[in-house]
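pasting for ref
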Amino acid sequence: MKKYVIYLLGVMVALVVSCKKNSAPAEEEQQAEPVRYEYGLAIDSFRIDTGYVREGETLGGILNRCGATARQQTQIMLLPRDSFDVRSIRAGKQYLALYQADTTGVEQLCFFIYKPSIREAAVFHLTDPVHIERQTKPVTYQSRQAQAVIESSLWNAMVDNNLPVELALELSEIYAWTIDFFGLQKGDSIRVYYDESFVDNTRIGIGRIYAAQFYHARAWQEAYYFEAGDIHSYFDGEGKSLRKAFLKAPLNYKRISSHFTYARKHPIYKTVRPHTGVDYAAPAGTPVVALGDGVVTFAAYKGGGGNTIKIKHNSTYTTAYLHLSKYAKGLKVGKHVRQGEVIGYVGSTGASTGPHLDFRVWKNDTPVDPLKLESPPVEPVPAAYKAEFDSVVSGYREKLGVL
């Protein structure tokens, strides 16, 4: 009986070992490295050389250096230009040369990949039939929530907090009608919920800003992106549009060199006279934009004002832009201009001691201080979409960490 038990144990051990041996290949197969595809190719099956186009280099020269045969080069040059324009090769752009050994063990250039940008690639198939495949990698997005306190400027706040500097540019556009970014104070702060865009794992910029809350002038100013029907714009928490009838300023300026007053000593004439505008000091050539939509009613040289433009925005408001170096191409009396459209460039024409823009505003034909201009908003969120808007805002506030 004892011998029989020992025999059975031996059989069981043998069966276990046999099962393990039989299962080993399956386990090894499961653990095998997956094939990595890129540019539609099993990329790991090639030896890859990476290079960059040199100044003055041609496609033919690059292919020759990479070992392309005369036949391969000729076939590429005979391809239609809409397949790939060989003249589009640019210095500094990356290319890849992919090699594989033939049956004799000699390496052959099988593919050449030219990358004009991180997203685009022209894949040259160098085996028969020779052809070129254009590929575009998809952009993916990842949502982010960020906040920063301003010590000097919005741009520096982004840099100091390792945030994308593109945020500063986009936020300045969103809040262009409500915040004077040259008047930010230390201690102002920003919360923002946005998308970052990627190609593969490489960050290429930011996508949409969905929500922002900007603390400025002792108050939080909200901005929420809302899209419904033909609406796609930014609104505050109550559904009022952030877009106003006028911008805060018609240019990016360094400083205000003279304010609105009825008693200023003129720097050239040395007499006390009204200065019913604001002087923005800025480098010559700085673009000047229309403060709002309107029609050009004057565009010519006018005495001490030099090259001057006047725009009538509606039955109430008119703006003027003085001392310009030149006008934008195509600008003329009667032209309809849009808010933010470049109309001219900073200069020092007329009675001027240096490059600057003298900017003036009239309300019902009476001069008003541009810095105190109250800008009427455009239409709010329609009542039909208000419930949907409120729900969207609630979600965005939660994303920002504010209820």
